[in-house]
Amino acid sequence: MSNRKDKGSFKDNLIARGEEARTVRKVVAIVISCLLIILIIGGISGFLYVKSALKPVDPGNEKGVQIEIPMGSSTSNIADILEKNDIIKNGLIFRFYIKFKNESGFQAGKYTFTKSMTYDQIIESLKNGRIIKEPVYRVTIPEGLTIEEIAAIYAKKLPMKEKDFIDKASDPEYIKQLMQKYPILTEDILNPELRYSLEGYLFAATYDFYEENPPIELIIENMLDKSQEVVGKYLNAIDEKDLSIHEAVTMASVVEKEAVTEDQRKKISGIFYNRLKVGMRLQTDPTVLYAIGGHKAKVLISDTKVESPFNTYRINGLPIGPISNFSENALEAAINPEETDYYYFLHDGQGNIYYSKTLEEHNAYKAEYIK
User: Fold this and answer.
1) For the segment 266-315, what is each residue's pLDDT rounded down to a tens digit?
2) Residues contacting 188, CB < 8 A, separation 6+
3) Using CA atoms, how far apart are residues 330 and 336, in angstroms rounded to an integer?
4) Coil, strand or helix at 137
5) Where are the annotated coiled coils located (predicted)?
6) Which of 2, 96, 171, 204 has its CA 20 to 30 A from that of 19?
7) Residue 200: beta bridge partners?
8) What's the pLDDT score for residue 347?
9) Nearby residues of 140 by Cβ (< 8 Å), 6 or more positions away
10) What are phi and psi of 359, to 5 degrees?
11) CB 184 within 8 A of CB 231
12) What is the SS3 assignment for 303-349?
C-alpha cells in the first residue's frame, strides 16, 4: 500500500514538474519575444530618428538666421549653437556625422544660415569661414518711417506691390495671428482709430532675403522679430516707468521724429514727460503731420487744429499710437529720459535745438530763429 502511494506521489511530482517547466519555457519565450520586439521597434525608431535628424530642419525655409561662432569653439560648442538656433535638429547626431565624415578645421566668425541647409552645406560653410547662402535681396529700412513709406521701399527693391504689403499689414485675421506670436503686440493695436495696427512696430534695420519672391508675411515677420528682440530687452524698464509697451513704442516714435542725436532725444523726451506731468499738451509737429497724412516744410496754425487722436495740439497725453518706426536709441530715450527743467524746445532749421524753461524764453527764440 505504501509503495503504491509513493509511486503515485512520485508520478504526480513528475507531472507537476513537467507542467512547471513548460510554463517557464512559455514565460521565457514570451519575454524573449517581447525583448526582440522592443529591440526591433527601438532599432527602427532609432534609425528613423537619425534619418530625420540628418535632414534640414525646414527644407522650404530660406529665412536667414544670424549666428556667431566664438573663437576657440569646440565641435560640441558649435553643434550646441546650431541646435539652439534651430539650424540642426540634434547636436549629438551632428557631432557623430562630423566624426564619421572626418571633418575639421571649422572657423570662428559670423554666419548666416537657413533652416533649409543640409549638414554638408553647413559643414562647408564652417570650413570656409563664409556664408553658404548669399542674400538675393538686401533692403535697408531707415528709422522714422510709416508703414506706407516702408511699403514703398520694399516695392522698389522686391517683386511686390505697395498695396499688397499694406493690405497684408492691415489684415485683421493676420494681425490676430501675429499677436499670438509676438508678445509686444498687445490689445492696444486693435484700436479702430489707428491707421495701421502695426504702425511703429516694423523695426528699422537692414534685412536680407534668400528667395526670389519672398512672401510678404516673411518680410513683416522678419521686422517684428527684430522689434521683439529690441523691445524685449527693455520690458522691465518699461514696467518700472509705469508705461505700457504701446505707450513706450508711441513715445519712442515721437522722440524719433523730433530729434537726431542721443543727447537731443534724451533731453526732448525729458521735456515731453515734464509736460505730461503738469498737464500740458505735447504740441509736437510730427504728430500733426501724421494726423493730416502728409509732409510739409512748415506746420501751419490751421494744421494744428485738425481733429485727430494723433494731433497732440488737440489732445491731452500721447497720441493713440506710434507715428513711425523708431531706433533703439529713441526707445531708450523714451524709457530713460534726461531729467531737465525745460518745458519747451525749438528747431532752427539748421539742426540746432534751443531749449527753454518758460514760454517767454521760447517765444524769444522763436522770434530770433524762425523766420
Assistant:
1) 999 999 999 999 999 999 999 999 999 877 777 778 888 889 999 999 99
2) 244, 245, 246, 321
3) 10
4) strand
5) none
6) 2
7) none
8) 85
9) 205, 206, 207
10) -65, -35
11) yes
12) HHHCCCCCCCCCCCCCCCCCCCCCCHHHHHHHHCCCCCCCCEEEECC
Q: Which of 308, 184, 274 is nearest to 234 (CA)?
A: 184
Mean pLDDT of 352-365: 87
Residue with more model confidence, 43 or 65: 65
Residue 17 confidence (pLDDT): 62
The neighbouring-strand residues paired with 109 are 69
Q: How far apart are CA 116 and CA 126, in angstroms?
A: 16
Lookup result for grid cell 570650413: 127
CA–CA dist 334, 256 (Å, integer): 9
Helices and strands per DSSP (H, E), number in the chain: 14, 6
Give the angle 338-342-347 at the CA atoms, nearest 5°: 95
Q: How far is CA 77 from the centre of its chain?
A: 24
Provide the residue type at 223 as one letter: M
Q: How many residues does the chain have?
A: 371
The closest of 77, 60, 76 to 68, measured between CA atoms, is: 77
CA torsion 354-357-360-364 (nearest 10°) is -20
Report the C-alpha gap between 156 and 141 in whole angstroms: 12
Model confidence pLDDT, tens digit, residues 70-126: 887 888 889 899 999 988 888 888 888 888 888 887 888 888 888 888 888 888 888
CATH class of 65-128: alpha beta
Cell digits of residue 357: 524753461
**189 in Cβ contact with 197 (< 8 Å):** yes
Secondary structure of residue 193 in the 3-state scheme: coil
Q: Residue 170: CA atoms inside 13 Å, Cβ hemisphere, count? A: 14
Asked if residue 49 has pLDDT above 80, the reply is no
The answer to whether 99 and 170 have CB atoms below 8 angstroms apart is no
Contact 280, 349 (CB under 8 A): no
Locate 187 and state its grid cell: 490689445
3-state helix, strand, coil in the chain (%, to 5): 55, 5, 40
